[in-house]
Predict the 3D structure of the following.
Amino acid sequence: MKAFGGGDLLHADRSLAGVALTPYQCISYALDRPGVASVFTGAHSLEELQMNLVYAEATDAAKDYATALATFPRMRWKGHCMYCGHCAPCPSGIDVALVTKLLNLGLAQENVPETVREHYASLEHKAGECLQCGSCEERCPFEVAAMQNMEQAARLFED
Ligand code: SF4
Ligand code: SF4
């Protein structure tokens, strides 16, 4: 719910961030949050509803919210993973965004939930394969300590 912040996020003058996002960017951001599988969107008109429905066919470039978020003047995003995937590709094939999401889901609870542990176990390439090459960090618009996160994920899920 509230993927558009009641519509405020779509307007620079109403958004707390002072920057307008597109509906696709808002939906994509909401769907990338840990544990979110679906998003309810509101619509004032048939036209708005149709625009939301074609999200499924939108290009990755149209859905990319990371660049817009990085320009938000009134918020600090540094160091916070947005699960945007801009750090890809990893030479070891690690899905850094997904591993980081699972790491944060695991750390949010006292004990790592079984579903999270199983999801991690099903990954083709795990954090322990990180070469510490640093290329993901160079590409991250939010200056996330991705290499440190890979080390932490390996400790949490693989030890
Ligand atoms: S580490 Fe950076 S680039 Fe990669 S998913 Fe997180 S925020 Fe995006
Ligand atoms: S530092 Fe590790 S996770 Fe990042 S691109 Fe290199 S091998 Fe992949």
Remarks:
- Residues 32 and 97 are 9 Å apart (CA to CA).
- The first helix runs from residue 23 to 32.
- The pocket of iron/sulfur cluster (ligand 2) is lined by residues 90-92, 94, 96, 130-136, 146-147, 150 (CB under 6 Å).
- The mean pLDDT is 90.
